[in-house]
C-alpha cells in the first residue's frame, strides 16, 4: 500500500520507515491505502517530538472485485486413456492487488480443450466459485492414440483467459486376445450420423443443412452446418420475391432438444450476403429462440481482426451457440435470487457468438462477438402452467454472480406465452418474479411507474425512495443505465471525469452512461455527480438514450403547447423537442415544461418507464 503517496515497504516492518507529513495547528492528515485483504497493524511515531510514543492502527481491508484468475492447482496427466486427470485443476479469482475474492461464490469458470491435438475432454466443463475458488472434480481425457502437450483453457466472463500446464495423454490400452476386435475400455466421443436440417427463408422451407450430435468438452452438443450452395440460392430467390420491402428472415430450427449445447455454423460469405440484404438470423432450439440482425455479426470488422481478406470470407465460420447450464450452476443462481427475495422463473440460458478461422499453420484463431449496436432479442417460451404475470423482468447474470435488469416484454401468440428479452450484449439470461411495493408512493401520482421500475431493479434503493426530492445527476445516470439493460456489475470502463472516483458510489453507472454517449459532462471535464439535475439536462440525457433504443417521435409540434418553452436553453432545444415528440417526457402542468426546475425522483421514474414503453422494450 502507500502512506501519504509514499509506497509502504513491507520489509521495513518492525524497523521503521520514515515518511514526511505536514502538520497544521498540530494536526496532519495523510492518505493511507492498503492493498492486502487481511488483518494488518501499522504503528505511527512522530519522530520530531520530545517524547514520542507508538500509536498502532489495526485495519482489516476486504478484497476488491474480481480482476484476474490464477491456476492454484494445476492438472497432472491421467493414469490411463479415458481416465480422469490425476490432479484436478483449481482456479482462484483475485482482485487487482492479488487478494483472493473470498466473498465470490457465483463466478462460473468454464474449461475447454486448448491445444490442437486430437483428443476429447470429458467431465463437467463448468465450476462455480466457492470463497473465490472454482474446483473441478471429474475432468478427464480420451483419445485414439497418445497425445503430447495436451492443455486446458479456463475462461470466465470479464476475465483474461488462463491455460494449464501441458501433459501427455497415454495411448489406449492394447486389446488382449488373439487379434480379435474386442471393445476398448476407454471412453470415446461418438458422432451420430448427420440428420437433415430444414432452413426457413422468408417463410419457405428448404432442406439446407445437417445436424450432428457429439460430445464436446464433456457436454452433449448438436452442431448445425448450413449448405452454402443451397442456402445462397434460396436467399437470392427470397430477395427477388420480396418486392414489398418486408423484413427478411432466415430461421434455423434445431430438431434435437435433448443436448446441452447447440451450435449453428454459418460461413462469413453467407453472413455478408445476409447483412447486405437486411436479414435477421433466428436460431430456434427447444423453448428458446435467438434472433440476431445479420449486421450485428459485423463480418467485415471480424475479418479484419482475424486477418482474413474480404475475398476469403468463406474461410470464416460464425458460430451461434446456446447452452443450457449445469444444475449446480442453476442452483447457485437460484440461491442468489432467493437471497434477494426474488424467484428465477425458468432455467438460465447462455448465449454466445464466436467467429473462427483456421490459419495456415493449422492453428485456430477466434474472435468473440459479445457487444451489439442494436438490441438483440432472445425469446423464451414460458413453461406451461407458469402464470405469465409472474414474470417481472428478464435478467442478465454479471461476472460476480449477481444479476441486472434487461428490458423484457411478455406476450401471447398462437395460444402460448413468451418472454422477449432485449440486450446489447451476450451473456447468460433468465427472468425473475420480483414484485416490489414502494411505501413512499402509496398515494402518489407516479405510484405505478415507481413500483414497476423498482420491481425491474431500475430503482436500486426503493426503501429510501423519496418521490418529490430532486434527483442527483449520479442517481439519474444510474436509473437510465439500469433501465436500458446496460448495467453490468464488475465491468470496467474508461473514466473521462476528474470528479468521479473509479470506486465511488454510482461511478460504474456514470462510466457506462459516458461510454454509451448518454452523458457528456461539463467543459471542465467534470460530471458533478452530487449536483441536482435540471429538467432540460435530463431531457438531453433521455434524447441520447433514445438513440440507443432507436426511438423517434412523431408528435413534432407537441412542444408548442407549452407556454414557457421559450425559456429552454438553446443548447437543449433539439433534445427537448425530440423527447417531447416521442412522449417520453411530460410537462409539470398541461401547458408548462419548467425546463430550469430540478427533476424529481418520481418524474425520473415515470419518464424512464415512458422511454421503455415507447421503445417497445417493455409492456405498457
Helix/strand/pairing class, anyone?
alpha+beta
How far apart, in Å, are the first and last alpha carbons?
Answer: 52 Å
Characterize the biggest β-sheet: 17 strands, mixed
Number of domains: 4
Overall, the morphology is: globular
Low-confidence stretches: 175-188
Computed CA radius of gyration, to the nearest angstrom: 29 Å
Would you summarize the structure shown here?
This protein is an alpha+beta fold. It contains 10 helices and 35 strands. α8 runs parallel beside α10.
What can you see in these coordinates?
By secondary structure, the protein is an alpha+beta fold. It has 4 domains: 1-61, no CATH class; 68-169, Immunoglobulins (Immunoglobulin-like), CATH 2.60.40; 195-433, no CATH class; 439-614, no CATH class. The protein contains 10 helices and 35 strands. It has a 17-stranded mixed sheet that branches. A 4-stranded antiparallel sheet has the order 12-10-16-17. Strand 20 (204-216) and strand 21 form a beta hairpin. The chain starts with a strand and ends in a 6-residue tail after the last helix.
Amino acid at each position: 500500500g502507500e502512506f501519504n503517496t509514499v509506497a509502504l515497504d513491507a520489509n521495513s516492518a518492525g524497523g521503521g520507515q520514515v515518511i514526511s507529513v505536514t502538520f497544521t495547528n498540530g494536526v496532519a492528515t495523510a492518505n493511507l491505502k492498503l492493498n492486502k485483504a487481511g488483518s494488518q497493524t501499522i504503528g505511527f511515531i512522530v519522530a520530531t517530538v520530545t517524547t514520542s510514543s507508538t500509536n498502532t492502527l489495526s485495519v482489516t481491508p476486504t478484497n476488491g472485485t474480481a480482476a484476474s484468475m490464477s491456476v492454484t492447482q494445476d492438472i497432472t496427466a491421467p493414469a490411463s486413456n479415458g481416465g480422469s486427470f490425476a490432479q484436478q485443476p483449481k482456479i482462484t479469482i483475485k482482485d487487482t492487488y492479488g487478494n483472493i475474492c473470498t466473498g465470490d461464490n457465483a463466478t462460473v469458470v468454464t474449461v475447454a480443450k486448448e491445444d490442437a491435438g486430437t483428443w476429447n475432454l470429458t467431465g463437467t466443463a463448468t465450476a462455480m466459485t466457492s470463497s473465490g475458488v472454482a474446483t473441478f472434480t471429474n475432468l478427464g481425457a480420451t483419445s485414439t492414440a497418445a497425445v503430447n502437450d495436451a492443455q486446458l483453457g479456463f475462461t470466465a466472463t470479464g476475465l483474461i483467459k488462463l491455460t494449464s500446464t501441458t501433459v501427455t495423454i497415454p495411448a489406449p490400452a492394447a486389446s488382449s486376445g488373439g487379434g480379435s476386435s474386442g471393445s476398448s475400455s476407454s471412453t470415446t466421443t461418438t458422432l451420430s450420423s448427420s440428420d437433415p436440417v430444414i432452413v426457413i427463408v422468408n417463410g419457405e422451407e428448404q432442406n439446407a443443412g445437417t445436424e450432428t450430435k457429439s460430445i464436446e468438452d464433456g457436454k452433449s452438443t448438436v452442431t448445425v452446418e448450413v449448405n452454402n450452395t443451397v442456402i445462397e440460392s434460396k436467399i437470392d430467390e427470397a430477395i427477388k420475391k420480396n418486392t414489398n420491402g418486408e423484413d427478411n428472415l432466415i430461421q434455423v430450427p434445431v430438431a434435437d432438444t435433448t443436448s446441452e449445447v447447440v451450435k449453428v455454423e454459418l460461413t462469413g460469405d453467407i453472413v455478408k450476403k445476409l447483412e447486405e440484404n437486411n436479414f435477421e438470423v433466428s436460431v430456434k432450439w427447444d423453448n428458446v429462440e435467438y434472433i440476431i440482425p445479420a449486421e450485428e455479426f459485423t463480418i467485415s470488422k471480424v475479418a479484419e481482426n482475424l486477418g482474413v481478406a474480404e475475398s476469403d470470407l468463406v474461410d470464416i465460420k460464425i458460430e451461434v451457440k446456446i447452452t443450457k447450464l449445469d444444475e449446480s450452476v442453476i442452483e447457485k443462481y437460484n440461491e442468489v435470487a432467493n437471497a434477494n427475495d426474488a424467484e428465477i422463473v425458468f432455467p438460465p440460458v447462455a448465449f454466445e457468438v464466436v467467429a473462427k478461422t483456421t490459419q495456415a499453420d493449422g492453428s485456430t484463431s477466434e474472435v468473440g462477438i459479445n457487444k451489439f449496436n442494436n438490441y438483440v432479442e432472445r425469446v423464451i417460451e414460458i413453461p406451461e402452467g407458469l402464470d405469465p404475470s409472474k414474470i417481472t423482468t428478464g435478467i442478465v447474470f454479471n461476472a460476480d454472480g449477481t444479476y441486472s435488469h434487461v428490458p423484457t416484454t411478455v406476450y401471447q401468440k398462437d395460444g402460448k406465452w413468451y418472454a422477449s428479452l432485449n440486450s446489447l450484449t451476450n451473456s447468460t439470461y433468465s427472468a425473475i418474479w420480483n414484485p416490489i411495493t414502494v411505501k413512499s408512493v402509496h398515494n402518489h401520482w407516479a405510484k405505478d411507474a415507481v413500483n414497476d421500475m423498482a420491481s425491474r431493479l431500475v430503482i436500486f434503493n426503493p426503501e429510501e425512495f423519496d418521490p418529490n426530492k430532486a434527483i442527483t445527476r449520479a442517481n439519474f445516470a444510474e436509473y437510465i443505465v439500469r433501465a436500458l439493460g446496460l448495467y453490468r456489475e464488475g465491468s470496467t470502463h474508461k473514466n473521462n471525469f476528474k470528479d468521479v472516483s473509479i470506486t465511488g458510489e454510482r461511478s460504474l453507472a456514470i462510466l457506462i452512461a459516458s461510454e454509451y454517449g448518454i452523458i457528456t459532462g461539463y467543459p471542465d471535464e467534470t460530471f458533478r455527480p452530487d449536483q441536482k439535475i435540471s429538467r432540460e439536462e435530463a431531457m438531453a440525457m433521455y434524447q441520447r438514450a433514445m438513440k440507443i433504443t432507436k426511438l423517434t417521435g412523431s408528435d413534432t409540434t407537441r412542444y408548442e403547447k407549452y407556454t414557457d418553452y421559450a425559456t429552454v436553453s438553446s443548447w437543449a432545444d433539439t433534445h427537448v423537442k425530440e423527447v417531447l415528440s416521442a412522449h417520453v417526457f411530460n410537462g409539470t402542468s398541461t401547458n408548462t415544461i419548467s425546463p430550469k426546475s430540478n427533476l424529481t425522483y418520481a418524474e425520473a421514474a415515470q419518464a424512464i418507464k415512458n422511454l421503455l414503453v415507447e421503445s417497445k422494450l417493455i409492456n405498457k
